[in-house]
Specification:
The structure holds two protein chains of two kinds. Chain A is an all-alpha fold. Chain A has 13 helices and four strands. By secondary structure, chain B is mainly α. Chains A and B meet through helix 3, helix 4, helix 11 and helix 13 of A and helix 5, helix 6, helix 12 and helix 14 of B.
Chain lengths: 322, 368
């Protein structure tokens, strides 16, 4: 029983990681007032960039760098459309998702001729599991052993990056001047402008931060858990991250718990297939798949607290009327 | 820099044209990037979509889908609402069509089934839009987010229903049984054999789509409700002062929008596939956003934009056949670029054009 719990938690951590990274990405963007439904596209683009470069160079770090670059480039397109051109942010996000879905498959086919996939990664092109010191020796110790060597040790480095990004994000947003200003442009850009701070530049920096984190999330999929890019490999995780962001009420620590919850539902769905529960019988896999979205809707309905988005989210800022 | 500074033909003609041109220019660059000649690609695309009757039939078939989803997004636009749940609403709308067809196809001819299918699809699509609408109206939860959530809920819901409840007994495929003749709309090729549409699945739902266009035009510009919808969209606060109930407008508009999206299923399910199956929507709902944007939320514009996207779909299929390097994913890229340039970046060329069309005297007077 205990072992099952540990295995479940281990799976939860693995599944939550890309969600968490993308969720924190969205947090930066939306806190600055730029709504981003293009998380999915940025993750997909990053997964492709990382997969392609890691294959060619056989170096996971270069792959990660490429993934981040692709994601930031897409983020800048979103920024250009929604900050500089004051376009509709939802429309821009939809466009990013289309572009990423099309370009990754098209270029993947052109470059690698494997139906849009990138070839399996060579040695060194993939992030390997980090084994913590003494993990093997401690394995046999009851309770502490499995906790330490299964749950804490033995993940990809990006998993630790994701969970360390939570306190870091909190610190940046709530304890630095940059963070204060970032939150301020998301609530009341005119006031920030009056203080002599460029709203556009603030928002661009937030969007770039969003791109970097999405780059981590996408790269994790293709060169850490996966071994290469597959067509549409994000499969809606960007939208799931968006749901998590709302569920977390745009707060970093909540984001972590929400992503763990959504990750747990995913892991549970896989595990519960074919298992008969008392009274209710077998729960279909689709229930677990839909549950995060249903929960988010229930939250949005105001039944679990109230989710109040940043006040200026989605509103382009016009400096002065001409 | 509001509308009205520019002549009407510039606003409705030149700017959309420039946006499209930019999108196609970048698409051309992508084609060059993958090592093909963009001019040849355009030739194949145009020939494949318009050059012969069967190809044109396919173009019209895809256009039918886009008209429905485009109208759905457009109606919501008029009320200032962004319905991005067309994907899910169309998917669930398929249930309405399937129920009507499965119940009636063995007993009555298609023209008796059709009204029930229309009602069923519209009702199911509207039902799927109802909760997001109600939450927006009553609780202020943003309709964009809730409709996205409902898209994903619909995917799980339909997979479950088709895999466990509606599945044809003894079949491995997650789909219903194939409808008999009473559940099939006639293909245009059978009605007008002289047009030579051949195997193109374009069917009578094209006319249902045209009827929906007339309905939307009449609703938005010729009825009291349409006036209220437009007032609410233009200025919600003023509309409330004018005695217009925001709850009623939001819910009713979203129901109409969802209903129109649901009706897309008539074309796919009753018109072409003749059975309800998984993933028959495949992006038509999302592309509806682009169609509505390009068509400026007007039925005539939507028909033109829908035909353009139909051409991309059909011509793109032909393209992937003629030039194997350019896979069907190219269509998605072009769609993305069109959405980007015609939608998100629609104001990019405007300042330059305003400068160009403002007489220099007026500009000098303004600056003085």
């Amino acid at each position: 029983m205990f072992e099952t719990v540990i295995l479940m938690m281990d799976a939860t951590v693995r599944v939550s990681t890309p969600l968490l990274l993308a969720c924190l990405a969205g947090l930066f963007s939306e806190r600055s007032g730029v709504v981003d439904i293009g998380l999915e596209g940025k993750m997909l683009g990053a997964a492709f960039g990382a997969g392609a470069v890691a294959y060619v160079t056989a170096n996971a770090w270069l792959g990660l760098l490429a993934g981040i670059s692709v994601s930031v480039a897409l983020a800048l397109i979103h920024g250009f459309a929604s900050i500089s051109n004051r376009g509709n942010q939802i429309v821009s996000g939809v466009a990013i998702n289309f572009l990423a879905a099309g370009l990754t498959a098209l270029l993947g086919q052109t470059w690698f001729r494997q139906g849009g996939r990138t070839p399996s990664l060579p040695e060194g092109g993939r992030f390997t599991d980090l084994t913590w010191p003494f993990a093997e020796q401690l394995r046999e110790v009851p309770v502490v052993g499995p906790l330490y060597s299964e749950l804490l040790s033995g993940h990809k480095i990006l998993v630790y990056v994701a969970f360390l990004a939570v306190p870091l994000t909190w610190w940046i947003l709530f304890r630095t001047r940059f963070g204060l200003r970032l939150r301020a442009v998301g609530e009341n850009p005119a006031a920030v402008d009056t203080a002599g701070i460029s709203v556009a530049w603030m928002r661009y920096r937030a969007v770039i931060a969003c791109g970097i984190l999405c780059g981590f999330a996408g790269s994790y999929l293709s060169i850490a858990v996966g071994s290469g890019f597959g067509v549409n490999m994000t499969a809606g995780q960007g939208f799931m991250a968006l749901a998590a962001l709302i569920f977390a009420k745009w707060k970093p620590l909540n984001a972590m718990f929400t992503c763990l919850l959504f990750g747990f539902l995913d892991a549970a769905g896989t595990r519960m297939q074919g298992v008969e529960l008392p009274v209710i019988g077998e729960v279909p896999l689709q229930v677990f798949q839909a549950l995060p979205y249903v929960l988010t809707v229930v939250l949005l309905a105001g039944f679990i607290g109230k989710a109040i988005p940043p006040k200026a989210a989605g509103v382009p800022y016009l400096k002065e009327r001409s | 820099m509001s509308a009205g500074q520019l002549p009407r033909w510039v606003d409705l003609g030149l700017i959309p044209f420039l946006n499209l041109a930019a999108a196609f220019l970048v698409s051309g660059l992508v084609v060059i990037l993958i090592g093909e000649n963009p001019l040849d690609a355009v030739k194949v695309l145009l020939w494949g979509s318009l050059g012969y009757a069967e190809g044109f039939g396919f173009t019209l078939f895809y256009a039918t889908n886009f008209i429905f989803t485009g109208l759905a997004v457009a109606v919501a636009f008029h009320a200032g609402l962004f319905n991005i749940g067309g994907e899910g609403q169309a998917y669930v709308g398929g249930l309405g069509v399937a129920f009507a067809c499965l119940a009636l196809d063995r007993f009555v001819p298609w023209y008796v089934t059709l009204p029930f299918a229309i009602l069923g699809s519209a009702a199911m699509g509207a039902a799927w839009a109802f909760i997001p609408a109600w939450l927006q109206a009553k609780r202020g939860s943003h309709v964009v987010i809730t409709t996205i959530m409902f898209n994903y809920i619909s995917f799980s819901f339909m997979v479950y229903l088709l895999g466990n409840v509606l599945k044809k007994p003894g079949s491995m495929q997650n789909e219903t049984r194939t409808f008999e003749d009473g559940g099939r709309l006639p293909f245009l090729n059978d009605i007008f054999p002289s047009f030579g549409f051949g195997y193109a699945p374009v069917n009578l739902s094209l006319f249902v789509a045209f009827a929906a266009c007339v309905f939307v035009w009449f609703l938005i510009w010729r009825t009291k409700l349409g006036y209220e919808i437009r007032s609410f969209g233009a200025n919600a606060t003023a509309a409330v002062y004018a005695g217009i109930s925001p709850v009623r407008i939001i819910v009713v508009t979203m129901l109409i929008s969802g209903g129109l999206a649901g009706m897309m299923a008539i074309n796919e399910i009753m018109g072409s596939q003749h059975r309800l199956l998984i993933d028959f929507v495949t992006g038509y709902g999302f592309v509806g956003i682009a169609v509505a944007l390009m068509g400026r939320a007007h039925p005539v514009g939507i028909i033109l934009a829908a035909i353009l996207f139909g051409m991309l779909y059909q011509g793109g299929a032909e393209l992937s056949f003629e030039m194997p390097n350019i896979t069907r994913d190219m269509i998605i890229v072009i769609q993305g670029l069109v959405i980007l340039f015609a939608g998100a970046l629609e104001h990019m060329f405007r300042p330059a054009i305003v400068r160009f069309f403002t007489p220099s005297r007026a500009l000098a007077a303004k600056e003085a």
